[in-house]
Write a structure and sequence with these properties.
Blueprint (H helix, E strand, L loop, with lengths): L5 H21 L6 H20 L12 H27 L4 E4 L2 E4 L9
Antiparallel strand pairs: 1-2
Helix pairs in contact: 1-2, 2-3
Protein name: SPW repeat protein
InterPro entries: SPW
Pfam family, one: SPW
Length: about 110
């Protein structure tokens, strides 16, 4: 028995793929080539795999389900392994300007208060 219904799983697949594809622009990190390529590549792979997988949400249903599951695991590992590099790229957005001895962030930057 599945933990979630297959139709819900398919909806989550396509939603996740679309969000991964759009995340560099939605989350404003499209200026980082490394982070953008990981997000767009993962999104395209998830959408492609979901479309070709042989399950109820698949469009063409030509790809074996085991290939789909193995590929999704590999994508998850890739994304998790690339997070540190992507985080470093995102942290470079914290460029500071020193004006009158104060630390000021450039417009559009988030200030992490501790």
């Amino acid at each position: 028995m599945a933990l979630i219904p297959i139709k819900v799983h398919g909806l989550l697949d396509y939603t996740t793929g679309a969000l991964f594809l759009a995340s560099p622009w939605l989350l404003h990190f499209s200026d980082s080539k490394a982070a953008t390529s990981v997000a767009v590549g993962a999104g395209a792979a998830v959408l492609g795999l979901s479309a070709f997988a042989n399950y109820e949400a698949g469009v063409s249903r030509k790809g074996p389900m085991q290939t789909y599951l193995t590929s999704l695991r590999q994508i998850a590992i890739l994304v998790v392994n690339r997070l540190p590099a992507s985080s470093v790229a995102l942290c470079t957005r914290y460029r500071s300007n020193r004006l009158d001895g104060e630390l000021k962030l450039l417009p559009g930057q988030i200030h992490n208060r501790r």
